Amino acid sequence: MRGPQRWELLALLLFGLGLAALLWLYVGDVLASMLWHRMALLDARWEAEIMQSRDPAWQPFWAGVTRLGGPGFLPWLVALLTAACFAARRFFEGILLMWGTTVLTILVQLVKAATDRARPATAVDALSPAFPSAHVSLSFLVYGLLALYILAPNGFRRSLRVSLVSVLVALVAAISWSRLALGAQWPSDVLGAGLLSGLWLGLLGAAWRGYRRRHPPRALVGAERIWSRVALGSLGIAGLAVLGSVLAG
């Protein structure tokens, strides 16, 4: 990787850590004192309505959906997507995904520690504080970055790219709802997670677009293209195996 690329990534990482520190202070000192009580009242009302309307027959389905945003699947997905970016010689995309996910993970844990919010009484095996939802935050970022990469011109038909992105949007929405349907999060945990990760996704997307305007990706030819496709195919098979294992578990 050339010098300018390393400096751009380092600057982006430092900016993300600075943003994490500022948001941590903001949530701990301002947001909690101004909005926490009213948020708790609204959450209790909305949570009661959700619990009354949920169908127990759908609980196994939502449990499977929520696994697609959990620690048993997303780290594997990030690793496989990063490897896929490297195999396609899209090194900036792979590093951006890996670093962006790491920074957001740190930020979410900082906010959780600052707020130390209790989970709903219906939460099962939930050890960490509730706000914000890590499942929703990381799902929004990982699937959102993947959607941005897919939407970029890449040789596939636009209708196919739009269809794939629509599936990803529906998946993030389903993961978000699954946290509520399972009683694992308060509604504001999900909303706060979406806002936080949406802001971070916007910053990463802007950085990626700016970089790619200055450094268009190089087309692969010959043996390099063949080996790239072989590697991508192998990673796709590995991804399906991980997906099957997570859903079966």
TrEMBL record:
Tell me which Pfam families the record gives.
Answer: PAP2
Tell me yes or no: is Transmembrane among this UniProt entry's keywords. yes
Q: What are the alphabetically sorted keywords of the record?
A: Membrane, Transmembrane, Transmembrane helix
What the entry lists under SUPFAM superfamilies is as follows:
Acid phosphatase/Vanadium-dependent haloperoxidase
Spans through the membrane: 68-88, 95-114, 134-152, 159-178, 190-209, 230-248
**Looking at the keywords, is Membrane present?**
yes
Domain called Phosphatidic acid phosphatase type 2/haloperoxidase: residue spans: 93-205
Task: Name the chain's protein.
Answer: Phosphatase PAP2 family protein
The species this protein was found in: Acidithiobacillus ferrianus
Classification of source organism = Bacteria, Pseudomonadati, Pseudomonadota, Acidithiobacillia, Acidithiobacillales
